[in-house]
Amino acid sequence: MKEFRPAKKRVEVSVGESVRILRELQELSQSQLSELTGIPQATISAIENGRVNLGVERAKVFARALQCPPAVLVFPGWEVPLARAA
Question: Is 4 domain-assigned?
Answer without folding.
Answer: no
